[in-house]
Amino acid sequence: MSLTPIRIFNKHVTNRLFRLFARSTRGPFAVIHHVGRRSGKPYATTIMVWPLGAGFVIALTYGPDVDWLRNLMAAAHGKLLWHKRIYAVGSPEPLAVEEALPAFPRLFRPIFRRIGLRDFVYVKAAARHDVQTRSKGTPT
Prior knowledge:
Blueprint: H1 5-22, E1 29-35, E2 42-52, E3 55-59, H2 67-75, E4 77-82, E5 85-90, E6 93-95, H3 97-100, H4 108-114, E7 120-130
Antiparallel strand pairs: 1-2, 1-4, 2-3, 3-7, 4-5, 5-7, 6-7
């Protein structure tokens, strides 16, 4: 997977900004914590999610061929920071666009359709706990 200039910009600028929104109590932004399938290194990636049933729908804005998704599938678990809570999540399962779109607020549906977003996954969520912050404002 090659990084185009817009993806590089998003990785270093936009995603860091959206990570701030993920720490709020509103909006679709979340941070998925996963472990590299080859390196074993921990990663945190900003994503768009919305709750559905006992888990979350994740919009694959870059498609299904992204490292964080492959890492999460390989490990079959990870953690999701959403609305100041951390959820243990399981292995992602593909979700049809017809099932995924209604989970998101109405404002997002036409945007997703317009950009041609067709890839979504579902993760079941287990335990959750509220985020405590350290002095630097990072979650524990």
